[in-house]
Amino acid sequence: MQISLDSKVAVVTGASSGIGTAIARQFVECGARVVITGRKQDTIEQAAERIGPNCLGLAADVSNRADMERLAAIIRERFGRLDVVVANAAVGANARLGEITEEKFSKVIGTNLLGVVHTVQVALPLMKPGGSVILIGSTASHEAPVSMSVYGAAKAGLGAFTKTWIKDLQGSGIRINTISPGAIDTPSLREALGAVSDESRIQTLAAKSPLGRIGSIDEVANVVTFFASDFTSYINGTELYVDGGLKV
Ligand SMILES: NC(=O)c1ccc[n+]([C@@H]2O[C@H](COP(=O)([O-])OP(=O)(O)OC[C@H]3O[C@@H](n4cnc5c(N)ncnc54)[C@H](OP(=O)(O)O)[C@@H]3O)[C@@H](O)[C@H]2O)c1
Q: What Pfam families does the record point to (predicted)?
């Protein structure tokens, strides 16, 4: 079975680093034309250059409706349509109960929930039957990591979006699924853990997994690529965990 995304046009938000970059790279390798986004024009252009000629980097802040409308207008003009949408951009914030400021709350909810609403709403008019929308969730929605309650709540909200939105889109032929990674080796995870200079923090996390390790960005991208493809044309409204069995 060879996954082909030939002739598909995709957008991956938050793809200047980590999981988003790996998803975009695999999409391009499978034949798609891909638009990637991040907040900084130079960073996103450099990421697109590293991925290759079928990747276009455009700056757009997912939490800003006007930015996302501009993004959709450019995609319409350049490609005329969208077949695959990956709502990947997200931010974390550490704050224990008692320390949750409005600023941290608004930043996480504005990016991880409102940003997903903007991403999907501006994309929908460009999509046709057969289109695939993939939301990137997290095991933090149920695993309850200390001081990550707002992030976990936002990621839990994606499950509600997925289930409700497929009903809102009844008859459209567009499907929506959530892929929820466990701990994945990215620079932002290492930074959040304080593991940049202390590898033992990664080992502690790895020991919690039934597979005894954390995951790689390609292990998430493999699954997202499968969900972007027509092989999953009858899968709709699911949440799939890419977590090495941590959820069990
Ligand atoms: N790594 C893990 O262990 C893990 C585990 C579970 C779930 N996840 C989820 O997987 C996804 C990717 O995570 P990652 O670890 O690869 O993170 P990352 O390396 O920090 O990447 C996040 C991306 O989002 C972009 N971004 C942040 N705010 C944005 C905004 N307002 N508008 C547009 N782009 C924005 C960042 O680019 P700029 O800063 O340049 O804007 C960056 O490209 C996220 O949804 C995350 O919650 C990750």
A: adh_short_C2
